[in-house]
Automatic annotation (TrEMBL), chain A:
This is Ras-related protein Rab-14. Pfam families: Ras. One of its GO terms (cellular component) is Golgi apparatus. Its EC number is 3.6.5.2. GO terms for molecular function: G protein activity; GTP binding. CDD domains: Rab14. It catalyses: GTP + H2O = GDP + phosphate + H(+). The keyword Transport applies. It is a lipid-anchor. Its cofactor is Mg(2+). One of its GO terms (biological process) is protein transport. SMART domains: RAB, RAN, RAS, RHO. It is found in: Cytoplasmic vesicle; Early endosome membrane; Golgi apparatus, trans-Golgi network membrane; Recycling endosome.
UniProtKB/TrEMBL annotation, chain B:
The keyword Ribonucleoprotein does not apply. InterPro entries: Leu-rich_rpt, LRR_dom_sf, PX_dom, PX_dom_sf. It comes from the Eukaryota. Pfam families: LRR_1, LRR_8, PX. Residues 5-125 form the PX domain. Transmembrane segments: none annotated. It comes from Hypothenemus hampei (Coffee berry borer). Keywords: Leucine-rich repeat, Repeat. This is PX domain-containing protein. Gene3D superfamilies: Phox-like domain, Ribonuclease Inhibitor.
Length: 215, 459
């Protein structure tokens, strides 16, 4: 039983946003379960997923809030932006309207998160090349103009899904290392869970080692 | 409240009676200024001291005070004669000093407590002396409705005839202070104020001169007596309105709005992060709560609210407390309140935890003193990933055998993280929980399937 120390040293909060039916819940499912969920029901309000990943030798627990895309839930899902360290903004490459709405999603994100929040743009359903409605170049340009990370992924095949979540975590971790992200700020979306002394840490937690030999 | 300057001719002083306290005779003085009446009690010695000061500084003739008597001053007849003489004395002094009203005389008759003008004079002195201290400290400053009423009345209509006074009244220091307050508390009452017939809750006051930067609290007041609460909209961080006659949130947040059924952008309480409306007569959380869109903490304890509504627009809400209300069933709470961390629904009529099953952000949940009877009804909490504090005392469920073990078992791997009824699980408890889960695995032939655990164990 995990009554003892935490088996991860950070918690990062993510939020997944985007229009209805772009595959937000499927991306989450693919990431946490490594499976494609074919008949995914509409999300009511919010869903939640978690997974522990490793970035630069640090175990990080991702707490992922998967929001409902339907307009009627907009009010309540807006509250989840608060305290998000990473925001995955998803559109569907086969439906231009979902791409066109990105600017409104981006406005919400910028308004409701803090400046250090990493925003990652995901063009989902890239397995459906034949039905493509938004070109890679166009979206890539949009991402660049707005300072977003960008990848095209497929929740169905699992292409780039892992990468998107991991890249976001790396970027956040980088911000912590650079000191751009203040761990103590209430809304940073990052919590530090220091490993407890006496616990063997294969990855050699630098601070922990130092503590042990300082007299 | 009293105003000597507006009721010069309706002012009277009487000594209708005397009273003996611990062998000393006190003369009960009754002051009437217009409608307002109050009583003051003084012994002869205090009259004597007053008289000496008035003789020395204000040219009062020496022999008008009835003389001292050392022996035999306890007889009823003597006291009666002296009472009449003292009454006459005070009446003479009032006529003589009405225009100047020296401080000793004002304080002798408590004019500085009940009369607008003299109360403000006193307040001015206090403000000029302490303004730096008051303004720089973040301590809550207290004002009575009487003081606020006096300021409002004075601003409405100053006293032009008051120039010939000892010290002309200058409201500067008061207004200066009022515009720099950090926190203010105003406490009213429906009873008579001190020894007078003034009722604080019947005094109207205006908050326009006030500029409060942090917290405004009012207690025991009647909201309809307060004008322009709305002037605090842009500056307040915290608003506490308790023990008032408020029936709806609109009564408070739209107190100064004529057409209450529409919400205007200008009615927003932009800075407000904490709103406490405890101990009122609220029956619902109405739409107007959206006017306080930046709320982080909402406290609605001790009202008559039966359901949780209209909170979905409060994106920043983290803490919600609705203790001792009439909440029975609340379905699908995650569609009504989003990213909330602390929820206190103690002392309601909740029977099941079903409504909470997707409030994934919840860290602290207080359901003490509700109507939960079965452990079965608690299983909906088992998937809340952030839950750390859970209170269930005062429910029937907490009296069943092995209650703690049974509740903790619901949380599987996370049992060790749950602080149940303010107590962390002990090692023996955790061991029992492990044994129970192991037994269940054997019995059911599979591991308890919590989707959450699976994802946890992936890596």
């Amino acid at each position: 039983m995990s009554a003892g120390p935490y088996n991860y040293s950070y918690i990062f909060k993510y939020i997944i946003i985007g229009d209805m039916g772009v595959g937000k819940s499927c991306l989450l499912h693919q990431f946490t379960e490594k499976k494609f969920m074919a008949d995914c029901p509409h999300t009511i309000g919010v869903e939640f997923g978690t997974r522990i990943i490793e970035v630069s030798g640090q175990k990080i627990k991702l707490q992922i809030w998967d929001t409902a895309g339907q307009e009627r839930f907009r009010a309540v899902t807006r509250s989840y932006y608060r305290g998000a360290a990473g925001a995955l903004m998803v559109y569907d490459i086969t439906r231009r309207s979902t791409y066109n709405h990105l600017s409104s999603w981006l406005t919400d994100t910028r308004n409701l998160t803090n400046p250090s929040t990493v925003i990652f743009l995901i063009g989902n359903k890239c397995d459906l090349e034949g039905q493509r409605d938004v070109t890679y170049e166009e979206a890539s340009k949009f991402a660049e103009e707005n300072g977003l990370l960008f990848v095209e992924a497929s929740a169905k095949t699992g292409d780039n899904v892992e990468e998107a979540f991991l890249e976001t975590a790396k970027k956040i971790y980088q911000s912590i290392q650079d000191g751009r992200l203040d761990l103590n700020a209430a809304e940073s979306g990052v919590q530090h869970k220091p490993s407890q002394p006496g616990r063997t840490n294969l990855n050699g937690d630098q601070a922990g080692v130092k503590d042990n030999c300082a007299c | 409240m009293a105003s000597l300057w507006r009721n010069q001719n309706e002012t009277s002083i009487l000594i209708p009676t005397t009273k003996e306290f611990s062998n000393v005779t006190y003369y009960i003085i009754r002051v009437c200024v217009g409608e307002v009446k109050w009583t003051v009690k003084h012994r002869y010695k205090e009259f004597f001291n007053l008289h000496n000061k008035l003789v020395a500084d204000h040219g009062v003739s020496k022999d008008i005070l009835p003389s001292k008597k050392v022996i035999g001053n306890k007889s009823n007849q003597f006291i009666e004669t002296r009472r009449k003489a003292l009454e006459e004395y005070l009446q003479k002094i009032l006529i003589f000093l009405k225009r100047t009203m020296p401080k000793v005389f004002v304080e002798f008759l408590d004019f500085h407590v009940y009369d607008i003008y003299f109360l403000l004079q006193e307040l001015t002195l206090k403000c000029s002396a302490e303004i730096d201290f008051i303004v720089s400290s973040t301590k809550t400053f207290t004002m009575t409705p009487l003081e606020l009423h006096a300021i409002s009345e004075f601003l409405k209509c100053p006293f032009p005839e008051a120039d010939h006074l000892e010290e002309p009244l200058d409201l500067g220091p008061i207004l200066d202070m009022c515009s720099q307050l950090d926190s203010l508390i105003v406490i009213g009452s429906s009873n008579d104020y001190l020894q007078s017939n003034i009722v604080l809750n019947k005094l109207s006051f205006d908050l326009t001169p006030l500029k409060i930067h942090n917290t405004f609290e009012m207690k025991n007041l009647k909201l309809n007596m307060i004008n322009s609460l709305g002037s605090l909209r842009t500056t307040l961080n915290m608003l506490k309105v308790r023990y008032t006659n408020a029936k709806s949130i609109s009564d408070v947040l739209q107190c100064d709005v004529l057409h209450k059924n529409t919400l205007e952008g200008s009615e927003k309480w932009v800075g407000l992060h904490t709103l406490d409306l405890s101990n009122n007569n609220l029956v619902e959380i109405d739409l107007t709560i959206a006017l306080a869109e930046n709320l982080r903490c909402l406290i609605l304890n001790d009202n008559m609210i039966s359901s949780i509504t209209n909170l979905s627009h409060l994106h920043k809400l983290e803490e919600l407390s609705i203790v001792n209300n009439l909440i029975t069933v609340c379905d699908q709470l995650h569609m009504k309140v989003g990213n909330i961390k602390s929820l206190n629904l103690s002392q309601n009529n909740i029977v099941s935890t079903k409504a909470f099953y997707k409030l994934y952000s919840l860290e602290s949940l207080d359901l003490s003193c509700n109507k939960i009877t079965e452990v079965e009804e608690l299983k909906f909490l088992s998937k809340l990933p952030c839950l750390e504090n859970l209170r269930l005392t005062g429910n029937n469920v907490s009296t069943i055998v092995d209650y703690r073990i049974k509740v903790l078992e619901l949380f599987g791997d996370r049992a060790g993280d749950i602080c149940l009824d303010s107590e962390k699980p002990s090692q023996p408890e955790l061991d029992k929980v492990s044994v129970l889960s192991a037994l269940r695995v054997v019995k059911e032939g599979k591991t308890p399937d919590l989707a959450l655990d699976k994802s946890n164990n992936l890596n």
